[in-house]
Amino acid sequence: MDILAELERRRAAARAGGGAARVAAQHARGKLTARERIELLLDEGSFEEFDMFVTHRATEFGMDRDRPAGDGVVTGWGTVNGRLVYVFSQDFTVFGGSLSETHAQKICKIMDMAMRNGAPVIGMNDSGGARIQEGVASLAGYAEVFQRNVLASGVIPQISLVMGPCAGGAVYSPAMTDFILMVKETSYMFVTGPEVVRTVTNEVVTAEELGGALTHTRRSSVADAAFENDVEAIAEARRLIDFLPLSNRSGVPERPFFDDPGRLEPSLDTLIPESTNTPYDMKELILKVADEGDFFEIQAEFARNIVTGFIRIEGRTVGVVANQPMVLAGCLDIDASRKAARFVRFCDAFEIPILTLVDVPGFLPGTAQEYGGIIKHGAKLLFAYGEATVPKVTVITRKAYGGAYDVMASKHLRGDVNYAWPTAEIAVMGAKGAVEILYRAERGDGDALAARTRDYEARFANPFVAAERGFIDEVIQPRSTRRRVARALAMLRGKRLENPWKKHDNIPL
Ligand code: HXC
């Protein structure tokens, strides 16, 4: 027998997955196959496949007569713009991409390699869940993956692209990864599906409503971004990977840049409106500070009162957290605090410096917030900033009021360089509220109160009171923000700071 012919025959069989009819069905749904997805994700010709000939070992339910090579998942490694990544891609055409014992072992193998060799794991999920014929062996396989997700967290970046069904306990592997990207209409994630929901709670929902990409990017915040189709999701995953360090020890990637770090932006001098209550778009500042205006936003559709994402400055990745005055006046609420806290912790875990842009009138008042636990959730963001040891550069553009001033990477939470624009107002609260409390007796007297308000504004609605105490290092011209931030980050490159030894902290979860 010609062994080379045998090799080719076996390879072809593995590449064919579940066969032409099932591949056609996958395409008819607007989904790519597991291998097509890998081809788009990785640099051309860079994919090295592992375990192509692995088959399951189940014998019951006639499974011994059906042993497709690869067992429903394609695994291996390759590069994204030249940088190493490990990848697994579930093949829905083989037993619905369901996870067997051996399927799980394939995933675990590349996760173990990724941990040893310090590179991200990119998972593409498209699966009917636990391989029903295998019972508890499949559940064990999931748990083996879960355990690795936990141990890898904070060591290597883990990204999930959910590109088909992902239901039941299977959702918990993506849930423990750093970022989840979903595809609209063709992917969904839920712990219990529409039928169980209808039986238990009498609610009638579709799979898309219950766990589709829009649900998870707008309502639940389980997912970080939603895309129109597989091609767009994978292209954006490549963009995201370009921003991320390979591991917690590698440092941020450095890319050639073609944007002068000293670039001045005179238009920023008029970004802040005349009236202190008029909103403006904080994203304009982010884009003007970033190299080439390139910004990868995380959770763009959720808690839009705070903006999180990655930019580069001098070719090096920087995490940005920014209050957004366009939404809820930029208040911190439960959702914004949770969103930003998780982002800050990701950046800190992977040594990504954090740029914080502040225009915050305070925490959002109301029973919904208090009953929902804003105390605990707001504390998450405070905690995340306070424990972060990466370089922290803060720019206050306008309001920095009350507790929210402290939270937003203030000097007191070990902010390294704290700048303010001349329009900054750093105070316990806004002038109107302050005067109403301080001069309650004069309440009926409009003129007197107006005078008091002007007086308060003159004294506190500026950056100088804070600057006099050294809480603000320098008051900078808006136009020079990019230059000042770039220089600050360059100065902080050698920063070394360690927190006290502990097993782990007890962040208010
Ligand atoms: C084995 C499975 C499978 C599974 C699908 N298939 N799910 N095989 N185990 N879990 C097979 C089907 O038999 C079929 O085989 C092929 O995959 C495609 O499935 P279809 O049903 O034809 O596809 P579709 O109509 O698109 O429906 C997809 C689906 C549905 C919604 C995912 O297949 C489904 O409901 N599957 C069962 C889901 C489930 O209950 N899983 C276990 C849940 S428990 P052929 O040969 O006909 O192509 C779980 C928890 C994990 O997952 C726990 C972790 C802790």
Structural features, described:
The protein has helices at residues 3-15, 20-28, 34-41, 101-117, 136-152, 172-175, 194-201, 207-211, 213-219, 230-243, 282-289, 334-349, 367-371, 374-387, 402-407, 431-438, 446-460, 464-468, 481-491, and strands at 48-50, 73-80, 83-90, 121-125, 158-162, 165-167, 179-183, 188-190, 225-227, 296-298, 306-313, 316-323, 354-360, 392-401, 417-420, 425-427, 474-475. The chain has 509 residues and is α/β, with parallel strands linked by helices. It has 2 domains: 2-243, Alpha-Beta Complex (2-enoyl-CoA Hydratase, Chain A, domain 1), CATH 3.90.226.10; 266-424 and 462-491, 2-enoyl-CoA Hydratase, Chain A, domain 1, CATH 3.90.226.10. The strands form 3 sheets. Strands 10, 11, 12, 13, 14, 15, 16 and 17 form an 8-stranded mixed beta sheet that branches. A 7-stranded mixed beta sheet has the order 1-2-3-4-5-7-9, sandwiched between helices. A two-stranded parallel sheet has the order 6-8. The radius of gyration is 26 Å and the shape is elongated. The structure holds hexanoyl-coenzyme A. Residues 22, 95-96, 98, 128-132, 139, 142, 165, 168-170 line the site of hexanoyl-coenzyme A (HXC). Hexanoyl-coenzyme A is lined by residues 22, 95-96, 98, 128-132, 139, 142, 165, 168-170.
